[in-house]
Design a protein that fits this description.
This protein is an alpha/beta fold. The protein has one domain: 3-Layer(aba) Sandwich (UDP-N-acetylmuramoyl-L-alanine:D-glutamate ligase). 33% of the residues lie in helices and 29% in strands. The protein has nine helices and 13 strands. A nine-stranded mixed β-sheet has the order 5-4-1-8-9-10-11-12-13, sandwiched between helices. Strand 8, helix 4 and strand 9 form a beta-alpha-beta unit. Helix 1 crosses helix 7, helix 3 packs parallel to helix 4 and helix 8 packs across helix 9. The longest helix is centred in the last third of the chain and has 15 residues.
Length: 329
């Protein structure tokens, strides 16, 4: 029996409810026109043109979920500062539920400031990045506040997505109790953890990139045979339902209950900025799994969505119409 075209599954991504738990941040982009080289150092002098702020970190998969017609509620820690207020406003503008954000007045909202030299409307070169963050683990007070929320929210959700940027919010205790809550309610648990795998043992779906997988395994991953062996170790040792490893321009590899698959990248066009592509991948794969799609179909949809966002500068989201258009190519 012939399998339906991938585009027929896009509508199934809407109408889901996902709780995103992770390290949120404000991505700030400062654009300037290059005028000359500085006399003080070998750097360009930029004349300020414009400023843009976008939800980053764990806020990016939440925004992608909302853009595809599903409900995203985020449980995370922010500071009592201007960046936190801007992040709340940017999430609300993207229809992400923000009542799960917890304010800690003792720490800053994580902010990544990128300075770009814009030589044309569509071409900008990043020349520097400045991060403002506090990696101190949150106090038990904030863990307790999050767990009270999660105990209420998880039974009402189709999935919990952990987006762990290793800034400190997802403590061992928080992850352990979150996992137990998901197991008790039969709620899907998906993970993007920047190479920190052990706390997420038993997750239904884990996404990482090839460098993260290679570092955890302690061996280089070059050939398809390497990836197949590596993914089998990851899945077995971490007791995962499925594991997907993104491979940049080479697409992704997946190991699920039905075996190993390698899917090439979608040839959509020139890559401008890979920032946030992994966030888009895990968001779309999570929605697909919520809809009852197989890990392979869910990841193929995620692969197409990721190919779209790398064609834009900065973290970006994908609409259903854009995803269908890409799958039509």
């Amino acid at each position: 029996m012939q399998q339906p075209h991938l585009k027929t599954y896009v509508s199934a991504l809407a109408g889901r409810r996902v709780i995103v738990v992770g390290d949120v941040m404000l991505d700030e982009y400062l654009y300037g026109r290059p005028e000359r080289l500085s006399r003080e150092a070998a750097i360009p002098v930029l004349e300020f043109d414009r400023r843009q702020v976008i939800p980053g970190g764990a806020a990016n998969p939440a925004a992608n979920i909302a853009a595809l017609g599903s409900t995203a509620q985020i449980v995370a820690l922010v500071g009592a500062d201007a960046a936190g207020a801007e992040l709340r406003a940017a999430l609300a503008q993207r229809n992400v539920e923000t009542n799960g954000l917890i304010t800690d007045p003792t720490r800053p909202t994580t902010t990544k400031t990128r300075i770009l030299a814009a030589v044309a409307l569509t071409v900008a070169q990043q020349v520097a990045r400045l991060d403002r963050l506090d990696r101190t683990p949150p106090s038990a007070e904030w863990e307790d506040a999050a767990l009270r929320q999660l105990a209420e929210l998880i039974p009402t959700a189709d999935a919990v997505l952990c987006s762990d940027y290793r800034v400190g919010w997802l403590t061992e205790r928080l992850v352990l109790e979150l996992r137990a809550l998901c197991q008790q309610s039969g709620t899907l648990l998906t993970v993007d953890s920047q190479g920190r795998f052990a706390p997420y043992r038993g997750a239904d779906f884990l996404k990482c990139n090839s460098a993260e997988a290679s570092a955890w395994l302690g061996v280089p991953l070059r050939s398809d045979a390497d990836f197949e062996v590596g993914l089998r170790r990851l899945r077995e040792e971490l007791q995962l339902g499925a594991v997907a490893v993104t491979r940049g321009g080479a697409g992704f590899s997946l190991l699920a209950a039905d075996g190993y698959h390698h899917i090439p990248a979608l040839p959509i066009g020139e890559v401008f900025d890979a920032t946030g592509a992994g966030d888009t991948f895990v968001a779309v794969a999570t929605l697909g799994l919520c809809a009852g799609l197989s890990p392979l179909i869910a990841s193929q949809l995620a692969n197409a969505a990721s190919a779209l966002v790398v064609r834009r500068i900065g973290v970006a989201t994908v609409t259903p119409a854009e995803l269908i258009g890409a799958l039509n190519l």
